[in-house]
Amino acid sequence: MEEVPFLTSRTNVYRYNKLNGADQPMTPMTHVPPEKACLSMDKLRLFIELNNFPFEIVPISENRICIRCTCEEPPVGTKRAFYKAIFETVGFQRKIDRWGSNQLVWCGHETEHMYTSFDFDTIKTKYETYKNDYENAEEWSDTWLKAPRKLTFKSAAKLEF
Predict the structure, then answer these.
(1) Which terminal residue of the chain has fewer beta carbons within 10 Å of its beta carbon, N or C?
(2) Domains observed in the chain
(3) CA-wise closest residue to 88 among 119, 111, 58
(4) What's the pTM value of the predicted model, to 2 decimals?
């Protein structure tokens, strides 16, 4: 594996096999998104972990980044409206697969800007819009989200050992 030129999570590394023709063995490949994308993914991952959300963020094929629900059954009602409100604020496009799955997935290109401020007022406004789509959705509660700590990431090239 190539050495990652900056500090980031191992989950920000995308591994795949490149086809070398029908009769040739495949070549293992590794792709690491740009540093800015990796740092944004790390911030989003920390926010997901802090709030114990059933989501993951990973690099996928064609230099894209995917935010997807890890639940076996898609969330419904209040939770669905809540998660849609949160992850829509990141700025990625919601994806619906061709098989008609109702799962929550967002994708974006690794060069797109990811908004990772997690502004509670913006999330609340989006939630108020989505909750009308679901029967018996609860009123917003400020206790649903834990505020992320302010983090500073330093490039490994700037660290002294």
Answers:
(1) C
(2) 34-135 (3.90.1150)
(3) 119
(4) 0.81
Query: With contact defined as beta carbons under 8 Å apart, do 155 and 4 qualify?
Result: no
- CB within 8 A of 87, min separation 6: which ones? 55, 67, 104, 106
- Written as one letter, the residue type at 84 is K
For residues 70 and 55, the answer to whether their CB atoms sit within 8 Å is yes
List the one residue out of 55, 42, 49 whose CA is nearest residue 13.
Answer: 42
Question: SS3 of 151, please?
Answer: coil
Q: Residues near 124 by Cβ (< 8 Å), separated by ≥ 6?
A: 85, 140
pLDDT along the chain (161 residues), means of 10: 54 88 88 90 92 94 93 92 95 80 90 92 95 92 85 50 33
| Per-residue exposure over 91-105, b if at least 16 CB sit within 10 Å of its own CB, e if not | ebeebeeeeeeeebb
Q: If you search the block for the tokens 């108020």, which residue do you land on?
A: 128
